[in-house]
From TrEMBL:
Similarity section: Belongs to the binding-protein-dependent transport system permease family.
UniProt-recorded name of the protein: sn-glycerol-3-phosphate transport system permease protein UgpA
Keyword Transmembrane among UniProt keywords: yes
Organism: Aurantimonas manganoxydans (strain ATCC BAA-1229 / DSM 21871 / SI85-9A1)
Gene Ontology CC terms: plasma membrane
Subunit (UniProt): The complex is composed of two ATP-binding proteins (UgpC), two transmembrane proteins (UgpA and UgpE) and a solute-binding protein (UgpB).
Database matches in InterPro entries: MetI-like, MetI-like_sf, UgpAE/MalFG_permease
Membrane-related topology note: Multi-pass membrane protein
GO biological process, one term: transmembrane transport
């Protein structure tokens, strides 16, 4: 195995410098500022700052509104990740069976990933808006009282579907690549032995794509926690009655609307700790069931 040799010893550091600079500016610097502001209390105009230690954290953790946001986030993130991954795997499996026009179908399924989260939210809001949405009109005509602007369960369902739809294309790409890497001889041999399509999938295909599934589980969890802000803001703005107010949206409300910067920073630190802990648990326990071929 040959070893890469650079003509200049500083060249590797020079190539890494842009990525290191981006990480420092857009991750470590904001994270350090959040940690610093989480132990301070500022007036809304930023004229006076007082050191309060862990008072912001105690206030946040004893706030019923924050505990409600934790519950909403748990339901929302779990539902979004499972729905997005399940539908993507179903579509990827179906696309592999297409004989003619396979590339065309794949392109159509990838396109939604290019849509911005806020735009995706507005698309679903227009379709299911109780006042002018086409699908909302069809639901009401069928006798279902559809109004996500007043019904919290319906609002949650709408944002979960919108967020999952936005992420399906990303998951689809990875599942297609994973399915293509499976040797056809394995599934053909199982078919000759009399195994049905369902049994072949759960005993051969799914175990072989387990590494990809595990990777997507981590990515989708992080996506549901952070990247769905635009969808929630466009569709429900956290309502009705905080039924869709996730942790990341509460950080925005308290920090930029209510101008409670100390509480908002403390919530950011807690949210970061939750995501790190979830990722660690996934790698520690879920990865044990992943078999790398």
């Amino acid at each position: 195995m040959s070893k890469a040799v650079f003509p200049n010893k500083w060249l590797p550091y020079l190539l890494l410098a842009p990525q290191v600079a981006i990480t420092l500016v857009f991750f470590y610097w904001p994270a350090s500022q959040a940690l610093y502001q989480s132990v301070l209390r500022q007036d809304p105009f930023g004229l006076k700052t007082t050191f309060v230690g862990l008072a912001n954290f105690r206030s946040v953790l004893s706030d019923p509104g924050y505990l409600n946001a934790v519950k909403v986030t748990a339901i929302f993130s779990f539902s979004t990740a499972i729905l997005a991954m399940a539908l993507a795997l179903l579509l990827a499996s179906a696309a592999e069976k297409v004989v003619r026009g396979k590339g065309f179908y794949r392109t159509l399924l990838i396109w939604p990933y290019a849509v911005a989260p806020a735009v995706a939210g507005m698309l679903w809001l227009f379709m299911f808006n109780p006042a002018m949405g086409t699908f909302a009109y069809m639901l009401r005509r069928s006798g279902y009282n559809w109004d996500p602007l007043l019904n919290g369960d319906q609002a949650m369902l709408l944002v979960v579907v919108a967020a999952a739809w936005k992420q399906i294309s990303y998951n689809f790409l990875f599942f297609v690549a994973a399915l293509q890497s499976i040797p056809k001889s394995l599934t053909e041999a199982a078919a000759i032995d009399g195994a049905g399509s369902t049994k072949r999938f759960w005993t051969i295909v799914f175990p072989l794509i387990a590494p990809t599934t595990f990777f997507l589980l981590v990515v989708n969890t992080v996506y549901a926690f952070f990247d769905t802000f635009g969808i929630i803001d466009a569709v429900t703005a956290g309502g009705p009655a905080r039924a869709t107010e996730t942790l990341v949206y509460k950080v925005y409300i308290d920090g930029f609307v209510n101008l409670d910067l100390g509480s908002s920073a403390a919530q950011s630190v807690i949210l970061m700790a939750i995501v790190i802990a979830l990722t660690a648990v996934q790698f520690r326990y879920v990865e044990r069931r992943v078999h790398y071929g």
